[in-house]
Specification:
The chain is mainly alpha-helical and 95 residues long. Helices cover 79% and strands 0% of the residues.
Length: 95
């Protein structure tokens, strides 16, 4: 993508929608984590892993890949921290 496109009002509107999706999804994802619904957390992370870079958030894709990897190897201890990192990226993008 060119920088001109990434700065266009149309693309900025898409980024805003994407960030709103994250904002509305994270509480449910955290609830799923608490309830041990790891496959639901995996689905969310897999989606973000595939879309983050497209919206200019390579760090979201990387964090989400870590979540997916941890779930695949049944290592759940760091998942809350990784969700915190996603939230931090979201908070930073809005400021």
């Amino acid at each position: 993508m060119t920088d001109d496109f990434m700065q266009s009002p149309e693309f900025q509107a898409l980024i805003k929608e994407y960030l709103e999706y994250l904002n509305t999804s994270l509480p449910g994802v955290r609830s799923n984590l608490i309830d041990g619904l790891y496959q639901d957390v995996f689905k969310f992370a897999h989606n973000i892993k595939g879309t983050g870079t497209s919206y200019g958030f390579e760090n979201l894709s990387q964090i989400s890949a870590e979540i997916c990897n941890n779930i695949e190897i049944e290592s759940y201890a760091e998942l809350g921290t990784l969700l915190d990192k996603i939230e931090s990226v979201w908070d930073e993008a809005l400021s």
